[in-house]
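Entry 12.
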Amino acid sequence: MKKLLPIILLLVGIGAGVGAGLALRPEPAPVEPTEAGESEEHAEKTAKGDEEEGPPSGREYIDLVDQFIVPVVNDDAVASLILITLTIEAEAGSREAIFEAEPRIRGALLQTMFDHANIGGFNGAFTNSSKLDRLRKTFLEVAQKAYGDEITDVLIVQITRQDIA
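Predicted 3D structure (tokens):
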């Protein structure tokens, strides 16, 4: 009897779990009547398409894998570090090709960030709209030069400056 008790408790627990899952299952969504000639499958796809918000048609967003880290040097010493996360907006279907070319694109973008840091672009109010607009425009030009016109925009998702004391 001592050997059967754990098995009986296990079966009772599993039965209670299944029963609770069936009892608490959400009600299925009501099916809306469709117009004559329109298949239910098409109606479901249309309803799902209306709910999902995505990129503009014909575009997709590719997150670059790692952050960019750019040192800001003042008087021959690192004064701060800039951390930037970028996302590339490109024509639909170009995700795999862009991932294959990512090292070349990252290298070009990183060089642009170093140049921007060397001219003082990350000093002071570096998140000023005019400074970031110029940086975004330069990112787009560089990315298109490194990869091609399939890249339609380079988005700055996150930018942070960490001052070093």
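Annotation: The longest strand covers residues 77-91. The longest helix spans residues 4-23.
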